[in-house]
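Bumping with the actual sequence this time:
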Amino acid sequence: MTVARHLTTERLILRQPEARDLAAYTAYCASDRSRFVRGPFSEAEAFDKFAAIIGHWTLRGFGRYVMEREGHAIGHVGPLALPAAEAPEFTWTLWDGAAEGQGFATEGALAVKAHLLGDLGWPQMMIRIQPDNTASCRIAERIGAVLTDAPAPAWYPGALTYQLMAEVAA
C-alpha cells in the first residue's frame, strides 16, 4: 500500500505541498512563529526549506502534508525522514496564529497517524519538540505519543523526544 497523496478530515484537506503554498510558508518562516524550529528565516532560507518539503515526496515517496482550510494553507503535518535508516520524525506546524487553538494541528496529526501507523502499518515515528513549546507537547500527548529519555539530536539541542507507536490490537 502506498502513502495517500490526499487525506481529508471533518474540517481539513491534507495534501501534498504545491508552489502556491510558498507565500504562506515564507510568511510563517519570517515570523516569530518559527522560533521553535530555529527561525525566523530569510526569504531565501524559507524557499530552501519549502523546496525540501516538496522534494521529500519525490525522494522518499511520502512527506509532510499541507493543511488546507476553506481554500487556504494554514500549516503542515506529517513525516520527515532525513536519515532514511531511522524512524521518521512526525512534525506539525500552524503557519498562521489565527488558526491556533482550534484543534487543527491535532486533527491533522490524528489523520496522518491513522493513515501511516494504522492503514499502512508503519511501526513508529519520533516527535521532537522544544520544551517551551507547550502547545505542541500537549498535541503529542493527545495523539498518544510517549515522552522518552532519549537525548536531543545534535541538530536540535534541548529538544524533548516523544515516541509514537502503532497501536497493537489486543
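The C-alpha cells above came from a reply further down the thread. Strands lie at 6-8, 13-15, 65-69, 72-80, 89-94, 124-129, 146-147, 160-165.
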